[in-house]
Design brief:
Blueprint: E1 2-10, H1 12-16, H2 21-34, E2 38-44, E3 51-57, H3 61-72, E4 77-84, H4 87-95
Antiparallel strand pairs: 1-3, 1-4, 2-3
Length: 97
Amino acid sequence: MANYIVLMKITTEGAKNLKDAPQRLAKANEILAKEGAKITAGYATLGQYDYVFVVEGPEDIAKVAKCAAAVAMTGATSVETMPALPVMDFFKLVAEI
């Protein structure tokens, strides 16, 4: 399994229907589960992004892209997804150079 950081901004449409966010999150969890992924942490944030999620999912980036596209198509948020490598794994790679 791989880790991904998902950054989201609430759209104007999403802001109009902010009280529906818990139902949209439940729907996002269903979408992720179909592709073998799950949210392991989620935060509402202040600043450039409104939500930050940590997602564990398949290493197949196409499946993760499919999930991100399906969530973005709801129109409530814009989605930016980044693969994430645990920092100690990164340090091990650097040590091999």
